[in-house]
Amino acid sequence: MKLDKNIPDEHLHFAKQIWDFLSVKDKLEKADLIFVLCSHDFRVAEYAASLYQKNFASHILFSGGLNFFTKHVFPNSEAESFADCAMERGVPKESIFLEPQSTNTGENIQFSQKLLFDLGFQCDSIIAVQKPSMTLRIQLALQKQWPRPNFLITSPNYSLLESPHSKINLFMIINEIVGDLGRVIAYPKLGFQEETFIPEEISAAYQFLISKGYNLHLVPNR
Predict the structure, then answer these.
(1) Is the N or C terminus of the chain more exposed, i.e. has fewer CB atoms within 10 Å?
(2) Predicted local distance difference test score (pLDDT) of residue 87
(3) Which residues of 98-109 are buried (b: 16+ CB within 10 A; e: fewer)?
(4) Do 46 and 54 form a contact (C-beta atoms < 8 A)?
(5) The DUF218 domain covers which part of the protein (predicted)?
(6) Cβ-proximal residues to 171 (8 Å cutoff; 6+ apart), any chain
(7) 3-state secondary structure string, the chain?
(8) What is the pLDDT of residue 222?
(9) Mean pLDDT score of the chain, rounded to an integer?
(10) What pLDDT does residue 73 have?
(11) Which of these, 134, 179, 168, 181, lies nearest to 154 by C-alpha position?
(12) Smallest Cα–Cα separation from 62: which of 194, 117, 42?
């Protein structure tokens, strides 16, 4: 399915508003673990490897199986693919934990908690790494589902217009962030994450983009 389209400036304006709202980044300190919630974007793995090389933590946990999109992108799980990328950048295999079964953010958290418990790996502080536009969702989900240890949230530094890569175009990225905002709105009611205030202009941008056909990643009706 070819979905590469020219995006009107008006659509980009509203998409950038949502991108900026969804993106959070904490000031980093040394931690016990780097927790990578995997995706289709290898820049996240590369960034996690750079944090390891800068001695921000002694271990990296890559969490992610395959979803409807990445099953067409990676031959193995997201976690294994990201780990291979990190090892190519000098992270030793013995410093890597793998959780290759999860298919969504909730499972990333639940399965990773269990893995660390089973390993007896104690953490007082964790750096959580994701794509920029997923960081608010991660922050809110961790506050609800994994309130301890202390989490710092971070991401590689790139903009909405820089977010496409060889596997995904800008049209699909905008669909993705519209869906992510929909989850920020819907998931607190389902008990998946903490609630956050949605400014009126962000709600308006969300409704506008849905009306223009960016509806491929919306929350399924329950």
Answers:
(1) N
(2) 98
(3) bbbebbebbebb
(4) no
(5) 32-179
(6) 3, 4, 5, 7, 214
(7) CCCCCCCCHHHHHHHHHHHHHHCCCCCCCCCCEEEEECCCCHHHHHHHHHHHHCCCCCCEEEECCCCCCHHHCCCCCHHHHHHHHHHHCCCCHHHEEEECCCCCHHHHHHHHHHHHHHHCCCCCEEEEECCHHHHHHHHHHHHHHCCCCEEEEECCCCCCCCCCECCECHHHHHHHHHHHHHHHHHHHHHCCCCCCCCCHHHHHHHHHHHHCCCCCCCCCCC
(8) 60
(9) 94
(10) 81
(11) 134
(12) 42
Residues 6+ away with beta carbon under 8 Å from 143: 193, 194
- Write down the pLDDT at residue 3: 46
Task: At 48, list the tokens.
Answer: 């996690």
Q: Let me know the angle formed at the C-alpha of 23 by 164 and 222, rounded to the nearest 5 degrees.
A: 85
Tokens of 134: 């997923």
Q: Does domain 24-154 have CATH number 3.30.830.10?
A: no
Distances (CA, A) of 9 to 12, 14, 181, 206, 215: 5, 9, 20, 16, 18
